[in-house]
Design a protein that fits this description.
- The complex is a heterodimer of chains A (about 250) and B (about 190).
- By secondary structure, chain A is mostly beta strands.
- Chain A has 3 helices and 12 strands, in the order E-H-E-E-E-E-E-E-E-E-H-H-E-E-E.
- In chain A, a hairpin with a 7-residue loop joins strand 6 and strand 7.
- The longest helix of chain A has 5 residues.
- Chain A is globular and about 55 Å long.
- With about 190 residues, chain B is mainly beta.
- Chain B has one domain: Protocatechuate 3,4-Dioxygenase, subunit A, CATH 2.60.130.
- The chains are: A mainly beta (about 250), B mainly beta (about 190).
- At the A-B interface, strand 1, helix 1, strand 3, strand 9 and helix 3 of A face strand 2, strand 5, strand 6, strand 7 and strand 8 of B.
- Strand 1 of chain A pairs parallel with strand 12 of chain B, so a sheet runs across the interface.
Chain lengths: ~250, ~190
């Protein structure tokens, strides 16, 4: 426990704290209250958010990395004795900040359905098959250039009961830390050309069309490996300083 | 400037991936001086939320971070088993439980001092973006009274939603209300 005596340790001296700052995005993230997504109704705060200045706790964050990762974590097709069903895909890209700088050594966690659109989750009982050779869980850490790469199976679509005949477009959930509490991001990656995108309230909760487009991975023939797997490219952009970089 | 990737809900199925066995343990259970923080997550109808995720980030007991952007860094030989980060899914009764060390006070950079606190992210189905709050400590009345963030909230009832409540056995309780009469203060970070 901290005592009064130890507080001299934190007495600031002039110039001691030159902290980075992060932009406060406007119009990018979805509103917390979004009528089309029913579950937001009772779960969104109604009081205005209070402005929190970015100080030490906000500009630092957990640097979780390689010690959490095992060799098969980034290849979801080799985590079980047999081959999973479905279309094998490679999902790769870079994690950047909005100043264009790579975010190296940062933990990415993903989860998704199998090819039949079924999650391996104890609450899911819908009539679609589980795949004994697919768990749908991945992790990796970005390299020095901010790059990541997963090998997995094309996820399926699934009905979700939000409204009549509601189906989620195929997606992979992504969780990222960046290097600061301020940069934490949980999002979903979608697939180019999915006809369900236009109908999905979660995807369309993002107000700006260009911003919605940044959640969609593009098929890339150059990333596609002959006789083996389709390639998709998806860059993820976390909050940067917001300052235009001249120099 | 590159456009940001938008946030999307964590959904109901994150529990496949995100919980870690040792996630709730910012320090191992039994660490001398460890404090247990428990609470429940509620929606606007006052119902518990059994599919939420609570994450915390905090300074060590010296008020320092093992992070390159804390220009002071940790005190040498400090807290080797201290991770700073906690993560706990809410259970069927809406509850979470974290074991940590109480952080020290922090220089705010403008000459003022921030009282000991944890930054908290709340993620859940129905939250299209995380919401952020803070946990302050009830035995820090003096520091809390001059904390620049708490002081910026003029309504005492609202301010009180950010201070944990002492429980028997020395535990602290911090309930989180996403909406309603007892709505917790959430921050634009």
């Amino acid at each position: 426990m901290t005592t009064e005596a130890s507080r001299s340790l934190v007495t600031p001296s002039p110039g001691e704290l030159a902290l980075p700052s992060y932009e406060r995005p406007a119009g990018v993230h979805p509103p917390l209250d979004f009528e089309g997504y029913r579950s937001t109704a009772l779960r969104h705060p109604k009081q205005p958010l209070v402005l929190l200045p970015q100080r030490l706790t906000e500009v630092t964050g957990p640097l979780l990395g390689a010690d959490l990762i095992t060799a098969t974590d980034s290849d979801l097709t080799t985590q079980y004795p047999g081959e999973p069903q479905g279309q094998r895909i490679i999902v790769t890209g870079r994690v950047l900040d909005s100043d264009g700088r790579p975010v190296p050594d940062t933990l990415i966690e993903i989860w998704q359905t199998n090819a039949a659109g079924r999650y391996r989750h104890w609450h899911e009982h819908r009539p679609a098959p589980l795949d004994p050779n697919f768990g749908g869980l991945g992790r990796c850490v970005t390299d020095a250039g901010g790059r990541y790469r997963f090998v997995t199976i094309q996820p399926g679509s699934y009905p979700w009961g939000n409204h009549h005949n509601a189906w989620r477009p195929a997606h992979i959930h992504f969780s990222l830390f960046g290097r600061a509490f301020t940069q934490r991001l949980v999002t979903q990656m979608y697939f180019q050309g999915d006809p369900l995108l236009a109908l999905d309230p979660i995807f369309n909760s993002v107000p700006d069309e260009k911003a919605r487009g940044r959640m969609v991975a593009n098929f890339d023939i150059d990333l596609t490996q002959p006789e083996w797997a389709l390639g998709y490219n998806w860059d993820i952009v976390l909050r940067g300083s917001g300052a235009t970089v001249f120099e | 400037m590159a456009g940001l990737t938008p946030s999307q809900t964590v959904g109901p199925y994150f529990a496949m991936r995100l919980p870690w066995n040792d996630g709730p343990f910012v320090v191992p259970e039994g660490t001398p001086g460890a404090v247990t923080i428990t609470g429940r997550l509620f929606d606007g109808a006052g119902d518990i939320i059994p599919d939420g995720l609570i994450e915390t980030w905090q300074a060590d007991p010296d008020g320092r971070f093992a992070h390159p952007d804390d220009p002071r860094g940790p005190v040498p030989g400090g807290y080797r088993t201290f991770r700073g980060f906690g993560r706990c899914p809410t259970a069927a009764d809406g509850s979470y439980r974290l074991v940590t060390l109480k952080p020290g006070p922090l220089p705010a950079g403008d000459g003022s001092i921030e009282a000991p606190h944890l930054d908290v992210s709340v993620l859940a189905r129905g939250l299209l973006d995380r919401v952020v709050t803070r946990i302050y400590f009830p035995d820090e009345r003096t520091a809390n009274a001059t904390d620049p963030v708490l002081s910026s909230i003029t309504d005492p009832g609202r301010r009180a939603t950010l201070v944990a409540v002492p429980e028997p056995e020395g535990h602290l309780r911090f309930d989180i209300h996403l909406q309603g009469e007892r709505e917790t203060v959430f921050f634009d970070v």
